[in-house]
Structure formats: structure tokens, C-alpha cells
Amino acid sequence: MAPRKSAKSPYSFPNPIDNDELVGHGDVWRAFMDAWNARDVHPIHPVWMLTGPRGIGKATLAYKIAKTVYGNVGDFFIIDMAHNIDDKGKPKTDAKLISVHTVRGVIERMQLSSMSGRWRVIVIDSVDELSTAASNALLKLLEEPPAQTLFLLIVHQLANVLPTVRSRARVEKMRPLTISELRELCARFMGDAEISNETLKLANGSFGRVANLKSLGGDEIYEELIATLENPNASASDLLAIARKIAPDNALYGILLDVIARYGLAELYPTATQQIANITRINLEPETAIFSIISDIKKCLQTHTAI
Q1: Is the dihedral of CA 128, 130, 135, 139 positive or negative?
Q2: Are 113 and 148 in contact (CB under 8 A)?
Q3: In terms of Cα–Cα distance, which of 287, 209, 285 is closest to 252?
Q4: Helices (H), 53-206
Q5: Other residues' Cβ atoms within 10 Å of the Cβ of residue 133
Q6: Nearest to 40 by CA among 13, 73, 1
Q7: Which helix (H) or strand (E) holds 30?
Q8: Would residue 55 be called left, alpha or beta, if left means φ above 0 and alpha means ψ between -120 and 50 degrees?
Q9: First vs last C-alpha separation in the chain
Q10: Are 279 and 3 in contact, with CB atoms under 8 Å apart?
Q11: What letter does residue 121 receive in the DSSP assignment?
């Protein structure tokens, strides 16, 4: 049984392209604007890589930058899963990676607009989701970037990016959001929700994580998991019951790593991370894998207590 996608959220979150209010990351925004405003004196770097954890606002910043450039003087292209196409130009709705045909399609449209003499912007969300062929096609484009073209590359894991692509970019490392910034976003988009400090800490600076935890009841599941692990009378069936609550939605799997971090069980982290990855990669049974991780945590806690 493969994990299902996240259930529909009871809250309303705007698509990053429609969100004009950026919270945090003022340093990166100012760095771009300084470079953009001085472009006639010092040519602006054509490739900007916005990197950092998921859910901190990288796409919101990318589209804010794109609209600053595109809204005034040029064309706007998007490479992402929502615009993914196959070799016949038809939408690929069930794909896990962005195809090379998507990248080539944008390149072709760019060439058609090359005579306008105006700036063009290409947003790629995200580089992590490009297929190998798509990454190579992008690399060829970045080796000799077209004139008056700005690339905005969104990256969740810098280690996943080809070194040759990274070397051609100005890398801006975006920091996780602060607790106060998270609270500002919660007030704006989840005004009626009760959000504890524990939930905000679990989010690790990602508003996207807060949204997932609240939308899916992840904060309550986390507390239930902690209580069960610390209950000396908890049985295997109790652990299995929680595994069944986590298993249906892959947005909740991070709870397991949060629990491992809470108890300082670093020895479990590599195995748990691999098991979580295998759920999607090799269609491992989610319930079984998650129950195994929870059981390992319970055993480690019992061992540490005995010592």
C-alpha cells in the first residue's frame, strides 16, 4: 500500500505565485534588489539559487523577484511539477520528476521570445525534482545563459544539485523562519488555530511544516506518540495503533525523526531515515515500516532507562 497524498487542508494557503507578502528573508530580498538596481553598472548574476529547507518561503521569494522583473520589463517562464509534460507535450500528472521535455519546452518558448529585447525570468521549482536528463539540459543552458535572462532556482537540498549546476549560480542560503515569523504567518493564514510552542518547535522554522502538522492533526499524534513511548505499560498494539495514524500520509513521517531527535537517539537516525525513504522509493508497506521505527525507539528508551 503506497502512502496517499495529503488530505485537503481546512485552512486556505495561497500558491506562492499569488502570495505577495513575504515574511522573513529580507536579507536575500535586499541582496537581489541591490544587484538588480545596479545592473546597468555591474551586470547582475544570471543564475540565483535559493536554497534551504522546505516550507520556509523560497518559492514565495522567487516569485516576488520574478514579478519585480517580469512585471516591469519581460517574459516569465515556470518549470515545476504543475507544468510537467511528456514527449508529446501533454501534462504528466502522475510523474515524480520533472521531465527533460518540460525543460526543452521552456527553452523553445524562450527562443521565440528572444527578439523582444526585454528581460526574461525562468523559475524552477525545484531543482531537486528535475530528472537526470532535465538537469543536464538545464546545465547546457546555464553554461552560456542567454542575454537578459534571469534564472531563479529553488533548491531544498543543496547536496542533491549537480556540482556543475551549483558552480554556475549565485547561491543564497535562506534560513529557517524564527518562532515570531512562524507566529506571524500562523496569524495570517491560520488565525483560528491553537498552535502551541511545541508545534512551532517541531516545525524547525518551516511554516509549511506547521501547516501540515495542524491540517493533518500531526501535533496531536506527536503528543500521543510521546505519551505512549513513555508509558511503561504500552503494548505492541498501542504502538501499531499510532503507526496506523501516521502511515496514510507521508507529510507526517517527519514526526518519527522529531521523536528520535527529542530523545537524542542518534544511532537510530540513519536507519529510520532510510526506512522512510524506502516507503516511497521501493513501495515499502508504510504501516509496517513505521511500526518498526516506533518499536526501535521504544526498545532504545527501555535500554537507556535500564542502564
Answers
A1: negative
A2: no
A3: 209
A4: 58-73, 100-112, 132-143, 163-166, 179-189, 197-202
A5: 15
A6: 73
A7: helix 26-37
A8: left
A9: 39
A10: yes
A11: E
Cβ-proximal residues to 283 (8 Å cutoff; 6+ apart), any chain: 2
Domains and CATH numbers, the chain: 24-173 (3.40.50.300), 179-306 (no CATH)
Per-residue pLDDT of the chain (307 residues; tens, 9 = 90+): 344 444 455 667 888 988 888 999 999 999 999 999 999 999 999 999 999 999 999 999 999 999 999 865 456 899 999 999 999 999 987 788 999 999 999 998 887 775 566 788 999 999 999 999 999 999 999 998 888 899 999 999 998 899 999 999 999 999 999 999 999 999 998 887 788 888 898 899 999 999 888 888 898 999 999 999 999 999 999 999 999 999 998 889 989 999 999 999 999 999 999 998 888 776 678 999 999 999 999 999 988 765 4
